C-alpha cells in the first residue's frame, strides 16, 4: 500500500487504498469514469506540490496524472501556440518555451507542479500570472461525462483562483493551450527585489534566460525550489497574500508593503504580516517548522505529521488575526485535515 507521503512534496500523508498512475488521456478519463461509476472517492495528484494530506491517508483511489506530450505552432509574427498535456512538469515546460525563443513565462520559473495544476491555482510570481498567457483549457466534465473546453474568459481567473478551483473536483484538466510572444526579452520587470537581483531599473526588459536564472536564484534563496534530497520539505508558499479593503490597509503600519489593485482594494504580503505578528523563521512544532529561509514556507524538517504542520499553520494564522485583524487563507489544498 502506497503512503501519500511518497507522492507529496511535504512528505506527509497516510496510506491510499489504491494508487493508479496514468500516462495517456484515455487512461485518465477511463480511470476517473470507473471511480465515478463505482462511487469511489477520488484524489487527483500531479506533482503533489500543493497538498497536505491527513496522516490517516485517503480511503479511495489516488490517480497520479503523468500524461505527457505537446504540440505547437510558432509564427514569426503571432508568436507560439502550444497545447500541453496536464502531466508535463511545469518548470520543464517553461525551460522548453525559452529554448524555442518564446517569452512571457520566464518569471514563473521554478514553480513546482504540473501544467494541469497551473490554471486551477492561477499560479503566479513576480507580478505575473499564468492566466495572462492561457488561451484555453480542455477538461473532462465529471458531471456531464463529456469533454469540455474553456476559453480564457470562461476560466474566470482571479488572484490564485479560477472556475476549476471553485468547482471542486468537477473538471479534470486534460491539457492547456498557451499563447506566447515570440522574442528573447522579458516583460518589464515589476518587482524591485527582482530588478535589484538583475542590476536593472524597474520596468527594464532583460534577456529571458537572464530573468529565469535570477528568478531561480531568488526562489532557491527563499527555499522555494523543491529539492527532494534535502530533509526540509515544503509545499512552497503556505498562505496567499491577502487582498483587503483600502480602509483596512490604512490601519496597517506605514512600513507595511502594499500593492493597490484595480478594484480599489490592496494586496498585502502574507510574509510581512507573519513576521510582524511574531512568527519567526526556524520556530517549530515537533517535526514541522517555519522555514529558516522564508517565513511563508512551512516545512517538514523530518518526521513531521500532518497535524504538526496544521498546528504550526494555525498558530501563524491566529497571530496574524490577533495582530492585524486579517485572516490568512491557505494556498495549500487540505485533504482530510482542516485549518
Describe this structure in words.
The protein is α+β, with helices and mostly antiparallel strands and about 350 residues long. It folds into 3 domains: about 5-65, Uridine Diphospho-n-acetylenolpyruvylglucosamine Reductase, domain 2 (2-Layer Sandwich), CATH 3.30.43.10; about 70-220, Uridine Diphospho-n-acetylenolpyruvylglucosamine Reductase, domain 3 (2-Layer Sandwich), CATH 3.30.465; about 235-335, Uridine Diphospho-n-acetylenolpyruvylglucosamine Reductase, domain 1, CATH 3.90.78.10. Helix content is about 25%, strand content about 25%. It is built from 9 helices and 20 strands. Strands 5, 6, 7, 10, 11 and 12 form a 6-stranded antiparallel β-sheet that branches. A 4-stranded antiparallel β-sheet has the order 13-19-18-17, with helices on one face. A 3-stranded parallel β-sheet has the order 1-4-2, with helices on one face. A hairpin with a 3-residue loop joins strand 5 and strand 6. The model has no long low-confidence stretch (mean pLDDT about 95).
